[in-house]
Amino acid sequence: MKKFLLAILACSVLPALALAKVYTFDLQKTVEQYTAFQAEIKEVRIQSENLNVEGKQKEAELQALVNEIKLLVQDRQKSELLTDDAKKKLDDQINEKQKAFETKQDQSRKEFQPKVDELRKKAADIESKHVAKIREVVKTLGQSKGADLILNSSANSPVVFYSVEYIDITKEVVEAINKK
C-alpha cells in the first residue's frame, strides 16, 4: 500500500517539478562577498580580537597568582624546618593569595561574560539584518526571472547537492545586494 501511495505521489509531483523554473544561489558565497555585511561584521571581529587580547592579559595575571601560590605551598611543605610562627605566616599568605585569585577570577568572569554576550548578540543582529536583505533581493530576482523555486547551494548547509551552473544566480544576488 505504501509503495502504491509513493508511486502515485511521485507521478503527481515529479511532472510539476519538471515544469518549475528552479534556480540556486550560494548563501555562504553571497555573504562572503556582501560588502555592507563584511564592513559591519569587521567591527565586531575587531572588538572580539581586542577582548581576546584583554582576556589573555587577565589570564596571565591569574596564572602569576597560581605560580605564587604554588611557590608558597612548596615552602609550606618544607614545614619541618620552619617555626610555628613561620608556618602560620605562610598559611596566611597562601590563604590571602587564594582569596585574591578567586576574587580576580570572579571579577574577570563578571567583566567578560557580558562583553562576550554583547558581541554575540551584535553579530547575530547584523547577520539577521543582512540575511533579511539578501532574502529580499533573492525574492525580487526570483520574481523578475519568473522563478518558481530558489534553493540554497552553500557547501556548509546545502539544500541542493547538484545543479547545473546556468540556474545559479549567486553572482546576480551579490551584485544586487552590493548595490543596495
Structure description:
The longest helix has 62 residues. The protein has 5 helices and 2 strands. The radius of gyration is 30 Å and the shape is rod-shaped. The protein is mostly helical and 180 residues long. The chain has a two-stranded parallel ribbon. Helix content is 78%, strand content 4%.
Return the structural class: mainly alpha
Global Rg: 30 Å
pLDDT averaged over residues: 85
Could you give the count of β-strands? 2
Strand content: under 5%
Let me know the largest β-sheet: 2 strands, parallel
- Helix proportion range: over 70%
Which parts are unreliable, with pLDDT below 50 for 5 consecutive residues or more? none
Query: What general form does the structure show?
Result: rod-shaped
Spatial strand order of the main sheet: 1-2
Q: How far from one another are the termini?
A: 53 Å
Q: Secondary-structure element sequence?
A: HEHHHEH
Distinct helical segment count: 5
What are its keywords?
single chain, 180 residues, mainly alpha, two-stranded parallel ribbon, 4% strand, rod-shaped
Characterize this entry briefly.
The chain is mainly alpha-helical.
What's the helix and strand layout?
Elements: H1 2-19, E1 22-25, H2 27-33, H3 35-77, H4 84-145, E2 149-152, H5 170-179
Parallel strand pairs: 1-2
Helix pairs in contact: 2-5, 3-4, 4-5
